[in-house]
Amino acid sequence: MGNDGDWIYNDFNAFHESVVYIEEDYLSAFEMESSEEDEGGGEEDETTVLADLVAVAGFHPDWEYSEFTDTESDEHIDVMAVSFEKKSPFPTVTIVHWSAIDKGSQKFIDDQSLDITQKISKYNAQILNSLGTEKLQMMYSKNVKLL
Q1: Could you report the per-residue pLDDT of 1-20, keeping only the tens digit for each?
Q2: How many CB atoms lie within 10 A of CB 64?
């Protein structure tokens, strides 16, 4: 590698802290104004923060959950298998509009007690847990991991 960006690749904790900062501090501080037509045909100005419009997710080659709990399932959850949900060949941050997440999550897990991200997490955990750590590690090493 050998450049100034190596720290973000080699230091998972620094990467994770950066993603948390973007998600919790930066997006919440970024205010946006929009105009919408009100019921009377006039325009109504609204101020919203960027965090209400987009979600941020970090992915990293060294990602590992320290724990994963699914309180509704009696099934054993393999934490190492579920960690593959957030692994990638390079440190990556995605920004996704909440409406896309909402629309996509309606296709699986019809559980109204869960919020959108919990539905996605539960679905991913079921799939990854069924594959198991050994198979996922083989697939990751063969098809994803670049270094």
Answers
A1: 445 556 667 888 889 999 99
A2: 13
CA distance 59 to 81: 15
- The overall longest dimension of the chain from CA atoms, in Å, is 61
Sequential DSSP letters for 99-133: HHHHHHHTTS---TTS-HHHHHHHHHHHHHHHH-H
CA–CA separation, 104 and 102 (whole Å) = 6
Task: Give the number of other CB atoms < 10 A from CB of residue 109.
Answer: 14
Q: Do you know the residue count of the chain?
A: 147
| pTM passes above 0.85 | no
d(CA 101, CA 99): 5
| Torsion angle in degrees (nearest 10) through CA of 121, 126, 132, 137 | -30
30-59: pLDDT as tens digits: 888 776 666 666 666 788 888 888 999 999
